[in-house]
Amino acid sequence: MRKKRKAKTQDGGKGLDKQCPPKQGRVGPPSPLSFHSPASLFSSLIQPMDTDQFFREYWEKKPLHLQRCDPPTAAYYHSLFQLSDLQSLCSQGLQYYRDVNVVRCVSGKKKVLNKQGQVKDSVLRKNLVQDKATIQFHQPQRFKDELWRIQEKLECFFGALVGSNVYITPQGSQGLPVHYDDVEVFILQLEGQKRWRLYSPTVPLATEYSTESEDRIGCPTHDIILQAGDLLYFPRGTIHQAGTPVGVERSTHLTLSTYQRMSRGDLLLDAFPSLLLDGSRCEVSLREGLPPRFLLGTSDCPHIRAHLASSLRCLAEGVESGALEVRSPLMRRDFLLNRLPPYSGQLLTPAGRTPTLEDVVCLRFKDHVLVTVEPSQQTPEEATDPAVIVLHSLTNRRETHMMGACEEEEEQDAFGGLRFPLSHLQALQTLQQAERLPVAQLQLPSAEERLRLVVSLWSESLLLVVEEESV
Fold it and tell me: CA 194: distance to chain centroid?
């Protein structure tokens, strides 16, 4: 589990100077994708498929192959990542295992050809040409601005982390053995061709990665040649293998993956402790003691199972009726504190002038903000009355996205959100819902508290004064 981050008090302002500017500018053909909103981005990504139809017929159900035959889309896909990008990035200190894996499937097994230390361009060329190996480049959105732009919007759309890998495979070769993944997968064919064979899942909607032996998987349900500009989707658990056909110099594809540990079971694991605690306050049967010697395993008490089943039904009824609230504090924190920051060509700093009581204001980056109620301290021993915590991802570092930052980095970049009294909850929720709002209309007891709230949000770059001419 990731280390918890400390929350700041409401009148503390944390600078955003650690957010690095983009490493590479956008150069290339015009984008066929719409970045107007998260929904428009996803809609344009899967066009001509309708979004509603996709979720109704394909999402978590079956694969989808979109053949484009569209030169502008193929040109744009090719610009997202090329072998030359990887070669130039080698000068930035890429490391084997952390950034790059060199692999080849030999007799149904994965053979890893990684060296130690820093990746060299000359060695990668040898891996491709002589070793017929696949180059797997981890999380290219750390370096390529357009991928940052796409994945940040997709994280807003799904409300879940979105990672990516680039795979470069020479002709007549396969990088990975037959396997299935624990993520929803979108394949964008950037260059060349690749043959994909998909098989029925042995573990539908799998929760972990696993290889499969070819004698167990039967015949492919899909046998597809992806061309540049095509898109392939398949659900987690879909068994697959892919290789570059003979006669094609190389294949380059981008894998976008999401929904890892985002199942209803994961939600229950996160929510159940608070559900049980809340239910115990009103259900006396949950507070009754266990039989003597139960923990020693020497007491046969079949009636305990009946009591537990009855208690679980009471909890379920409370959830269904709304009497018990389903909270997912760890999942939400993990997402907000590990997702990409907003796509920006410059440092994120407080915008405009400092708000006053006479101003009209609006909340910025709403898709990157979460207002939650949590214990005011971080450990049960210190826990006191609940407090309102405003979490956001503006201070997240693009350079470590999906890379599992080390403890030292987590400590340096620790940010647990702004903390406010519980009385501020309604005012914060109103700011979230309103397009713009006069500071004077914030439902707080005093003018001093209204001003302190908006200045605290402004100092975090979360709030903007709406000037009169733009109203």
Answer: 27
